[in-house]
Design a protein that fits this description.
Blueprint: H1 2-27, H2 29-61, H3 70-116, H4 119-123, H5 125-138, H6 141-169, H7 173-178, H8 181-217, H9 219-227, H10 231-283, H11 289-330, E1 348-356, E2 366-374, E3 378-383, H12 389-396, E4 404-409, H13 416-422, E5 423-426, H14 437-442, H15 450-459, H16 463-468, H17 489-503, E6 507-511, H18 519-527, H19 529-533, E7 537-541, H20 545-548, E8 553-558, E9 561-566, H21 568-574, H22 577-587
Parallel strand pairs: 3-7, 3-8, 5-6, 6-7
Antiparallel strand pairs: 1-2, 1-4, 8-9
Helix pairs in contact: 1-2, 1-6, 1-11, 2-3, 2-6, 2-11, 3-6, 5-8, 5-11, 6-11, 8-9, 8-10, 8-11, 10-11, 15-17, 21-22
Bound molecules: adenosine-5'-triphosphate.
Adenosine-5'-triphosphate binds near residues 383 and 385.
């Protein structure tokens, strides 16, 4: 069983490595070419050092038979040594560019994957953890593979050149040095498995620690963390996680140090044996001093090249499981859906017998719901916390697909992308884009003009606020990036409303659109809501009954079901749950 897995993994490694190499080449063709050229120059320079070393020894020991005089030999030796030394820093710098390009390409693939994932997948914990692991580890791996592959190419060239030199001196020296590689490769295979297991084990812990770091450092949390004096407790947790990470890391580092020490010892032992063999060959008169000198240089350089070769192979083996993880992630999920087409709404949207349960949850969040929103109508959803209002709104907006039941648009079951293109949602926790006001409004960019953005801002009651902003519509909002202007919570909410109005779809879902508005603004919004919506239909979710009483129809939800439905007056007359909640709320104002 274990052997079978090992064999499968061994077969998969070359395929993954080749795929990674292709990624690198496609990320930056000319950069890869330049980096490969440096490897070639490095190998040629290393060979040059051996050859000019031999020439120098010849010129010193047997000047009468030397091909070149001592001075030119020394000059050439200095030149090739300098060249061989200079290549490495050039390579390092070239690798920086290549590394960035590779990371950009892999990020693009990752972003394609996250864009493809539907909301249910995105919200499941398995997805978030896999994404985090891929971000933490696999993103750097294609570049590690590049470095390893380039190192492998260069060292193979070097090993080839040095081996040729050694073969001419004494063929036995070569297997002696190469033998050191076998345990090195086997050890690195073992190390690679422990490294992947380590990364897998620690992803959840890293996620929790990163979250704490965000709480402790990011601006949106700064006020509350200070107000609750939460820093000491958060730091304490952070410290406990550090201790956990340190213990796991120490154990892993010890494993890796063991591998490194054994590999280095193997190479050093082979080097010593080869040098002893050279001494033996000189003593027995089988080779001259000049050959021995050149062979010693070649052995020394070959052991260096072999070190690179083995660590490159180790790097490739180590990266393979991470690459497989990345590959699994980017090929997971459905293929990219085509962009949806915005549809007009002539009759209305109807949900019939809709059920929806979140993955891993025993109960349906929405359980057999029928609702209808006719064109141009304002329909309200009310109900206690957790009764399923937001979930239902996401089904209406095409963000979730019902497990059973139908969602018809003018009597037709539209594909989800078309529904998403035709419905706009503002969530309770809408996004505060740290960008200009104009960008905040036009983020959906339906190709609207500057006038349309200003029109949306005006309809959302932002006119006065825009007048006070230093650069008007082009003022950057928010201080997260340290360059913008902060606006109040209610103003942010108006910006979100403007964003929804700008998108101009026939149906808008407004989830608690007035939570942060002052009483006057809320009153203005709801008394003029039909004018503000400009004929669009709206699904309004609110806990404030004063906001929803003007709706054409109110659905009351409880435990995922619609328990009552009617106009405000009808529901009050029915004296059911709505009437009870309404009276409770209005009593508070008396
Ligand atoms: N992403 C999710 N994963 C799992 N369960 C969820 C998720 N979102 C909501 N739920 C659960 O589904 C049920 C309905 O939640 P929903 O957010 O739709 O209620 P709501 O009526 O909008 O609540 P509120 O008035 O508090 O906003 C709740 O029991 C909630 O815990």
């Amino acid at each position: 069983m274990r052997l079978g897995r090992l064999a499968k993994a061994s077969l998969a490694t070359p395929r993954l490595v080749l795929a990674a190499a292709r990624e690198v080449r496609q990320a930056d063709r000319s950069g890869t070419l330049v980096a490969s050229a440096y490897q070639l120059v490095g190998a040629v320079a290393a060979l040059g050092v051996v050859v000019t070393g031999k020439l120098t020894f010849d010129a010193l020991l047997t000047p009468e038979r030397a091909a070149l005089g001592l001075t030119p030999s020394l000059l050439l030796l200095a030149l090739t040594t300098a060249l061989s030394g200079a290549v490495s820093p050039l390579q390092t710098q070239q690798h920086r560019i290549l590394g960035e390009r590779v990371s950009q390409r892999v990020w693009d693939r990752l972003l394609d994957t996250t864009a493809r994932a539907d909301l249910v997948t995105y919200e499941s914990t398995g997805f978030a953890t896999a994404l985090e692991r891929v971000q933490q580890n696999a993103l750097t791996r294609p570049f590690a593979v590049t470095t390893a592959l380039l190192g492998l190419t260069g060292s193979l060239l070097g090993v080839g050149a040095m081996s040729a030199v050694l073969l001419t001196v004494e063929p036995l020296l070569l297997p002696l040095l190469l033998a050191a590689g076998v345990p090195a490769v086997l050890l690195s295979r073992w190390a690679s498995r422990t490294e992947f297991a380590f990364a897998h084990r620690l992803t959840a812990l890293f996620r929790r620690r990163d979250y704490l770091r965000q709480l402790l450092t990011r601006r949106p949390y700064a006020a509350e963390v200070r107000a609750f004096d939460a820093t000491p407790r958060l730091r304490e947790r952070h410290e406990r996680m550090n201790v956990e990470v340190n213990a796991a890391l120490r154990a892993q580092v010890r494993r890796r140090q063991l591998v490194a020490a054994l590999t280095t010892l193997g190479v050093a032992a082979a080097l010593t044996a080869a040098l002893l063999a050279i001494v033996q060959l000189v003593q027995s008169g089988r080779i001259g001093l000049a050959e021995a000198g050149a062979a010693a240089i070649a052995v020394r350089m070959l052991s260096g090249q072999l070190g690179t070769l083995f660590s490159s192979i180790g790097g490739l083996l180590e990266s393979a499981p991470f690459l497989a993880d990345l590959e699994r992630f980017v090929t997971s999920g459905p293929p990219a859906a085509p962009r949806g087409r915005k549809r007009p709404l002539a009759a209305g949207v109807a949900l019939r017998g809709v059920r929806f349960g979140y993955p891993g949850q025993a109960r349906y969040a929405v359980d057999g719901v029928d609702i209808e929103i006719r064109a141009g109508e304002v329909v309200a959803l009310v109900g206690e916390n957790g009764s399923g209002k937001t979930t239902l709104a996401k089904i209406v907006a095409g963000l979730y697909e019902p497990d059973t039941g139908t969602r018809h648009w003018d009597g037709v079951a539209l594909p989800a992308p078309d529904v998403r293109a035709s419905v706009t949602v503002i969530f309770q926790d809408f996004v505060r884009y740290q960008m200009s006001l104009r960008d905040n409004i036009t983020i959906s960019d339906d190709g609207g003009s500057a006038e349309l953005a200003e029109e949306a801002a005006r309809a959302a009651g932002l006119l006065r606020a825009v007048g006070r902003l230093p650069d008007g519509m082009d003022t950057v909002l928010g201080r997260d990036l340290d360059e913008g202007v902060d606006i109040s919570g209610g103003q942010w909410q108006r910006v979100a409303l403007a964003r929804a109005l700008y998108r101009d779809t026939p149906l808008i879902v407004l989830d608690e659109p007035a939570a942060a508005l002052d009483p006057r603004a809320e009153h203005e919004l709801f008394t003029n809501v039909r004018a503000t919506l400009g004929g669009r239909a709206a699904l309004l979710i609110s806990h404030r009954f004063s906001s929803t009483r003007m709706a054409d129809r109110i659905y009351v939800m409880a435990d995922g079901r619609v328990v009552e439905c009617g106009t405000h007056d009808e529901l009050m007359a029915a004296a059911g749950q709505y009437a009870e909640l309404y009276r409770l709320q209005s009593a508070a104002y008396r």
